[in-house]
Amino acid sequence: MKRALSLAAALALVLSLTACGAPKKAETSLFAMDTYMTLVAYGDGADEALTESARAINELEQLLSRTREDSDVWRINHGGGKVSSETVQLLARALAFSDETGGAFDITVAPLVDLWAINSDHPHVPSQAEIDALLPLVGSEHVSFGARESAAPGSYDVAYVDEGCAIDLGGIAKGYASDAVKEIFAAHGVKSGTVSLGGNVYVCGMRPDGKPWNVAVQDPQGDGYACILSLSDTFVVTSGGYQRFFTAEDGTVYQHIIDPATGAPARSDLLSVTVICPDGTRADAYSTALYVMGEEAAVGFWRLQQDDPFEAVLITADGRLVCTPGLTDHFTKQEGASYEIQFLSR
Question: Rounded to 5 degrees, what angle do the CA atoms 215, 230, 104 make?
């Protein structure tokens, strides 16, 4: 789960706008999907775009929340049933990402998330026996689709999970919501703006002064920033164990991202992963998956994506900031950051 955005959050927008001659600006904030969100748009259609975007985000939360008893996800986790086409679409993408990442991203890890309860007020260090009892419930094969008799041929509107299993779309829902906002901005002619959905950032077009947006990636070992990325028309999503964690009585620190393969908090040699690509849903899933994989597997995965490339910033536990080559002209090291900068090659 990505941490809520603030000036000292995992990602922060550095907005430097001209004071004179700027187009009309509209801004709105809301709390949804368990995080604070801020949307800014410029242009004649900005107000309408933000109103529709906020409505769309709230509607998606109603569909995708795991805790709302009227949501599609609740229905799936409690016997299955009819769900919206949007939910089916997102589930299909989530399962595809799970297969693509070798299970490093997996929405069926929900029972293990509940077992550890790291994001709750009462975290729990389970026994290996407790973990082993739940591991068989994890895997994309536990999610199924069906259709009512009245459904059109080849379409699905029923989803369910095997007994004892559960899904949680928290690791991908905000990315999906940011994709929806992108479409709304385009429909209302918004060509400049920023969207921050709790660490999931979308930068629309260029700034009103014609320059790229500056997106700051937080230093996971401090309060400052590790680097700044100058970007336009893209999504930026960061995942890291530093965002939410708890310290057990014996002093062991357990971070919140569960490795679906072990059933325990991921023991990654990465402190954070930032993924940059034109697909918010994909960026959301990949940021979690690459963190779980660790540096070597994450770099290998990136190198395999030749047909549909993405960019990334990996901050390692041994003090390196590893960037993909497409960021060379968009990267500025933050003054005072101590990381050794390393750019990958294909």
Answer: 60
Q: Which band of pLDDT confidence, cut at 50, 70 and 90, is reported for residue 264?
A: very high
Q: Supply the pLDDT for residue 221.
A: 85
What the block records as the tokens of 106 is 């997996």
Rounded-to-integer distance, Cα 115 and Cα 149, Å: 38
Residue % of the chain over a pLDDT of 90: 73
CB 232 within 8 A of CB 206: yes
Confidence of residue 5 (pLDDT cuts 50, 70, 90): very low
- The pTM score is 0.90
Q: φ, ψ for residue 231 (rounded to 5)?
A: -140, 165
Q: Identify the CA nearest to 333 among candidates 237, 228, 217, 231.
A: 228
- The single residue listed with the structure tokens 């693509």 is 100
| Residues 63, 110: Cα–Cα separation, whole Å | 17
Residues 6+ apart with CB under 8 A from 173: 33, 60, 61, 64, 90
Is the Cβ–Cβ distance between 11 and 5 less than 8 Å?
Answer: yes
Q: Can you say how many angstroms the Cα of residue 22 is from the centroid of all Cα atoms in its chain?
A: 31
